[in-house]
Write a structure and sequence with these properties.
CATH topology: Alpha-Beta Plaits
Shape: globular
Pfam families: Dabb
InterPro entries: Dabb (IPR013097), Dimeric_a/b-barrel (IPR011008), HS1/DABB1-like (IPR044662)
Organism: Paenibacillus rhizosphaerae
Protein name: Stress protein
CATH class: Alpha Beta
Radius of gyration: 14 Å
Subunit structure: Homodimer.
Number of helices: 3
Length: about 100
């Protein structure tokens, strides 16, 4: 298994509706991009405002393996997503790591 975690910081003038649209686009990846085993995405609702640092959208994608994650990065649906949200984003954090899961 391989995890891909992304945090997005949207520009201040981006509406909640636009952020929610991005979440829906992410959920469209499941079943349409090979190698994805699980996906979650959502708008940050933490009460720990001092730790948000402006990041308002979180995405977690689980893959069968690291190669599936690498293939996902180049997939046309993912590339289209990047083109759509790119003008609205002012910061991004990405973390990838392998894990064995719970047996």
């Amino acid at each position: 298994m391989f995890e891909h975690i992304v945090l997005l910081k949207f520009k201040p003038d981006v509406s909640t509706a636009k952020k929610e649209e991005a979440v829906m686009q992410v959920y469209d990846f499941k079943g349409n991009i090979p190698g994805i085993t699980e996906i979650t995405a959502g708008i940050n609702v933490t009460e720990e405002k001092e730790h948000m640092q402006g990041y308002t959208l979180g995405i977690r994608v689980s893959f069968e393996n690291q190669q599936a994650c690498q293939d996902y990065i180049q997939h046309p649906l993912h590339q289209e997503f990047l083109q759509t949200i790119g003008p609205n984003v002012e910061g991004i954090i990405v973390m990838d790591y392998p894990w064995k899961g719970q047996d």
